[in-house]
# Entry
Amino acid sequence: MAAEVLPVSVEDVPAILLIVRQADVDEITEALGIPMERALIDAVTGSLNARKIVVDGEVVAVFGDAIHSILGSVGVPWLISTIHVEKHARAFLKVCKPEVQGMLTRHRHLMNYVDARNTSAIRWLKWLGFDFGEAAPYGARRFLFYQFTLNRGN
# Structure
């Protein structure tokens, strides 16, 4: 089945909260110390292009990009996956690279952090072409995270 990339809103958050993948819950609530509901609402309302990936009526992931620095044209890409992502992996992956390229039209540089324990997210980010720094303590709880970056080609 093909994935649809649709707008996501705060009204979608309660339903998405029920199906967030455990590794994403661990990263946001345990490692960063932020309630998942707050993280989702802030991400959706603070993004230039918040979207959800839907396959067969199931939300597979929500994602977007926020502005980190206007002067440096740095954007912060984010994605929170759901329990349905593995079942629809092929359709999910098919839409990822074009969406990242879209982010690079809005920002010259993309940068964020990923929990060092979240091995599937790290593998996916590397597949998308992101570069990684060394794992270092990050966030309120100082868990190990990798900074990942991607720059627009000149």
The first strand starts at residue 4 and ends at 7.
